[in-house]
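Reopening this one. Same input as before:
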Amino acid sequence: MTNTKKTNVKSASRVLDVIEYIVNCSKPPTFRMIREALDIPKSSMSYLLQDLITRDYINSDADLKVYYPGLKLIQLGAASINNTDISREISFATKKLSEDLKVTAHAAILDDRFVVYIAKAQSSTDLSLVTNIGFRIPAHATAVGKVLLAALAPSELEMRLKNVELERYTENTVTSFEKLQEDLLTIDKNGYAIDNQEVIPGGICIAAPIYDKTNRVIAAISATMPLTRSTDEFLAEVIKIVCSMANYVSIRLGKI
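Same output, byte for byte:
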């Protein structure tokens, strides 16, 4: 009886490990990449992948010999988002922000040193790199990312970023850890972050933090606009409205 339980737990762990690896991999992985990363025997891996394909949790490309998330996994993710109060509140706020300011609005969460986008409302002048919900990008190059990084303890920030080569997207991208630290202190003090063409040439983004009922930063919401619209007057208005919307969501989630 004990051995059976251990086998079941091990099998379940392998299934979850494979799904997480495929979802989080920067490019669709091959069979060999998955097996070597997770140290799963070849025969066990074959049966496991085939079962996941049969149940639509993953798909495979026979020509490229790679694997990627399947429809069932995407549907479950969407259902999970739609069935939580947090996601509903953030989705509503993102749409409202986009409508009020006529900008593209986003919401994102932090995953290690990356941000994962969980909501997007697109305007007619869309400058966003975000192609779909679940899109990932290094946090240091984005306004939402910097807001989330600013909420980390210094030791946690160092652990995630100090020895990392920070990617450069434009000439404005901050790639020095020391400079990033300075910027994050200012962001934490101000309560918002500005991405001035750091990831998209010609794009300006303003982001503010969303808190839960324990006063913990759990997400960030942002507004992105073309540089041509970013007059001092309009930027001040955007900062005010983005911060107000972030505060509104935080209060709805129980922040006092």
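So the earlier flakiness isn't reproducible anymore. For the record, The chain has two domains: 2-74, 84-252.
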